[in-house]
Structure formats: C-alpha cells, structure tokens
Write a structure and sequence with these properties.
Blueprint: H1 3-12, H2 17-29, E1 33-37, E2 40-45, E3 48-55, E4 60-64, E5 88-92, H3 95-117, H4 134-142, H5 144-152, H6 155-167, H7 171-186
Antiparallel strand pairs: 1-2, 2-3, 3-4, 4-5
C-alpha cells in the first residue's frame, strides 16, 4: 500500500488529525500493514483486517474488527450500536488519552493479531434471530412472490431489511418502508444496492 494515500487522508482531516497520526504510529509500531479501505486508514495482518482508524464529531476511534473476541481487561471496548456483532471501538476525545493508553492499545492490537492467527470467528446471529415486524410478516403471508424473493436474498440483505423495517417506531412508518422496498426485494436487491 502506498502510504501517501493515508498521508493525504490525514492532511485533509479537519478533526482529530493529531490523534489519528498517533494512532497510525501505534499501528505501524505493531508491524501491521497499512491500507486504505472504506475511506479510512486500515491496518491488516497477512491480508486480514485488524483495526481501522476513524473520526466522528465527538471522538476519534480505533475500531478493532474482532473486538468482541478480546478479553478487554481494561474495559475500554465499546460496541457502536446494538446491531454491531463483531467490531468494537476504543474511543478518544483528546491526544492525551491516546498517549496515556498507548501500551494498552498496543496490547489490544497484539491480542487482535493473535485472534486472527488462531482463525477465531465471532458467532454471528442468524437471520432467524432478528425481529421480523408484524407488518412484514403480513406482507409476505399475503404475497408468495415477495416471500420467495425475500427468502432467496443473501442473509446479509435479509438482515438489512429486517433492521431497517424494525427501526421504525410506528406501524405506519414500517408499512411505508416495506412498500417502498418491495420492488427492490422482488428484483433480488439489498437495501443499499
């Protein structure tokens, strides 16, 4: 990977520039391979994603791809949302926090590398374990083509729709979302395709 891409990303960053530069150095000290994926610096071991550096409005973070498998002895890993199954973040709001935790961050990265070397995998929820809103149950019960089309989607696409439908608080909104998505489901497409 050409480090100039990450250099350019960091130079253009408006927030968290110093924090991300230090996180980059820490990742490089751990002998990870620098890459640039999903528009963020990503660090790999033998082609497998280990960590990603990203910034948000209120914090910057080091995302550990299989963070759910780490021991988290310092209790610093955060699950971004209830639907994130594998990745965990270590969040920072200033440079001093990173400086203070540098050795701990490195220990977590090395543990993440060991998880990858051992080929450990996070046990993911199956599609059946996700909530299917009553409105969608009704829709597929009434339309056999929709039911068949939904069942032929990949599990990830199915989960994407179920999460999207379930996030709506009102039944009317769930029904509207379902109606708008029916053509995509019938075309075999995912929510974001």
């Amino acid at each position: 990977m050409n480090p100039k891409v990450v250099d350019r990303f960091l130079d253009r960053s408006k927030n968290w520039k110093d924090e991300m530069k230090l996180l980059r150095k820490i990742c490089q000290d751990c002998l990870l391979t620098e890459d640039f994926k999903w528009m963020h610096p990503c660090y790999t071991f033998q082609g497998k994603n280990i960590v990603l550096i990203h910034g948000f409005k209120d914090y910057c973070a080091l995302l550990i791809y299989k963070g759910a498998l780490l021991k988290d002895t310092e209790n610093i890993l955060i699950q971004q949302t209830e639907n994130v199954q594998s990745a965990r973040q270590i969040r920072f709001t200033n440079l001093q926090e990173i400086i203070n935790l540098e050795q701990t961050i490195k220990a977590y990265i090395f543990e993440a590398i060991e998880v990858e070397k051992a080929s450990l995998e996070v046990k993911m929820k199956t599609t059946e374990e996700y909530n299917m809103p009553e409105e969608f149950k009704k829709a597929i019960k009434e339309d056999s083509k929709l039911k068949k089309a939904f069942e032929t989607l990949t599990p990830g696409r199915q989960r994407g729709y179920l999460l999207y439908f379930s996030q709506a608080k009102q039944s009317k909104t769930r029904e509207s979302r379902i109606e708008k998505c029916i053509p995509k489901i019938l075309d075999g497409k995912g929510l974001t395709d």
